[in-house]
Design brief:
CATH superfamily of the largest domain in chain A: NAD(P)-binding Rossmann-like Domain
Strand order of the largest sheet of chain A: 1-11-8-7-5-6
Order of helices and strands of chain A: EHEHEHEHHHEHEHEEEEHEH
CATH class of the largest domain in chain A: Alpha Beta
Number of helices of chain A: 10
CATH topology of the largest domain in chain A: Rossmann fold
Helix content of chain A: 40-55%
Strand content of chain A: 15-25%
Oligomer: homodimer
Mean pLDDT of chain A: 97
Chain lengths: 278, 278
């Protein structure tokens, strides 16, 4: 068994991005909109800011109080859409209930939608047009490629069908010519399906749910879960137990997590390059 | 074994649509843009016209010569987008090579895109927002529901990952809580996958490819193929042979085919109702 070191791979990618940004005539810019004061959101936003500055991307945070008027946010998005120094715009999710998440996201110009969450970019992903794509799924494919895992022709089983991970990931795997199965809470015989996976992705948000009984000998196991339990953070995979059976496995923390932020920077640079190649 | 009679089910739906259209204050309108003179396209367009008139939907065909200027088509689409008597707009595919299919399709207002092919509507399908959806996949789900096939929790295997059928269909099945596997030319052991299907969809365009060796005893088999061979039309399923094993099966012709046109009318009425409920 070998551990896929997401932290190390993400450092490598950031070094590549940094070298590329150095050659940019104008610095690429990333703007983040945050509403409210969730502790986890604060932490994620800081991590993004730190990483952006590390590679030389301009970072702007627009932080609003929960009491903010939705029109104020709408105007800010429009302003950022028109700002030529802004290459990437993202809204830190989840938003407080009173805001219409989907509506606000879809106001972002698809060419600046570095989180890949606008309907148009999701549609373009389905038809394999290489749009800006959701960062966690993108990070998973990158982890596999940099670990020299062959994807074409492999049986991939994804457990979880969220809009943020499971569904976009399924299309990325299909575009890489994998045979893809998506399982979820309504799947009748989950074990039967996961035991056939050459590459198994656990993305359902259920601490240590995937035990070794769910995993084929020699499978590659990707753990997307981030759960807080008494003893700290853990994933959706029972690492100690599954790692004895898997050929490759991502830990939590230090697996998929660090890749998400790095892919956000990569998307920002992609948006910048597309703009400047026009 | 029971045959799913797509012709009969589609007549039932048309009767329902006709009754609904009768109560419309203004008649719903469907506009079709055709470029060139492909024999198959002529046939499909006539079938759409006939069906539209049958249920009382206004039908307009804008037929252009292959030598037409793309700007002319662009202007027509814009005109139809703004025409309040037009509820549905579709472009008959495939277009002659010199036209940019994807670009033209994406000019159609999503609320009038009755073929469900704009990036925005595909994106909304992925996130389960019940948009106007591609007619063939929609027809397949309707066939199953009207044949009282339970979908939730079933293993669905789709062979073929086209943008028109396989990919949108996968999301419709996921939204119905099926466990979905998508197979294609790069799948390593196709037989192993299809033999696990409770519901098997053949949509790869390969005449009679799916023989009984690919089908589990008692499976429901949906044949989307329309292939022309010496002896006439046939599907992707070897009907004579597979029908002995399947519990339910669609024939070709007379299975999925008739549903596609009917769903186009249903989408036109859906678009009309959405407009008038605003």
């Amino acid at each position: 068994m070998k551990i896929i070191d997401g932290k190390k791979i993400s450092e490598e990618i950031k070094a590549e991005l940094k070298a590329e940004v150095k050659n940019c005539f104008i610095k690429p810019g990333l703007s983040v909109i945050q509403i409210g004061n969730r502790e986890d959101s604060n932490k994620y936003v800081s991590a993004k800011q730190k990483a952006a500055l590390e590679v030389g991307i301009n970072f702007n945070l627009y932080h609003y109080d929960e009491t903010a008027d939705e029109r104020e946010i709408v105007n800010k998005i429009k302003e950022l859409n028109n700002d030529e120094y802004v290459d990437g715009i993202m809204i830190q999710l989840p938003l407080p209930d009173k805001f219409n998440e989907k509506k606000l996201i879809n106001l972002i110009l698809p060419s600046k939608d570095v989180d890949g969450l606008t309907d148009r970019n999701i549609g373009r992903l389905v038809t394999n047009k290489d749009p800006l794509t959701s960062c966690t799924p993108l990070g998973i494919i990158e982890l596999l490629k940099r670990s020299e895992v062959k994807i074409e022709g492999k049986n991939v089983v994804i457990v979880g069908r969220s809009n943020l991970v499971g569904k976009p990931l399924m299309h990325l795997f299909l575009n890489e010519n994998a045979t893809v199965t998506v399982c979820h809470t309504k799947t009748s015989d989950l074990k039967k399906m996961t035991l056939q996976a050459d590459i198994l992705v656990a993305a359902m948000g259920n601490p240590k749910f995937i035990t070794k009984d769910y995993v084929k000998e020699g499978a590659v196991v990707i753990d997307v879960g981030i759960n807080t339990i008494n003893s700290g953070l853990c994933g959706d995979v029972d690492f100690d137990n599954v790692s004895k059976k898997a050929s490759l496995i991502t830990p939590v923390p230090g697996g998929v997590g660090p890749m998400t932020v790095t892919m956000l920077l990569k998307n920002t640079l992609k948006s910048y390059n597309l703009k400047n190649s026009k």
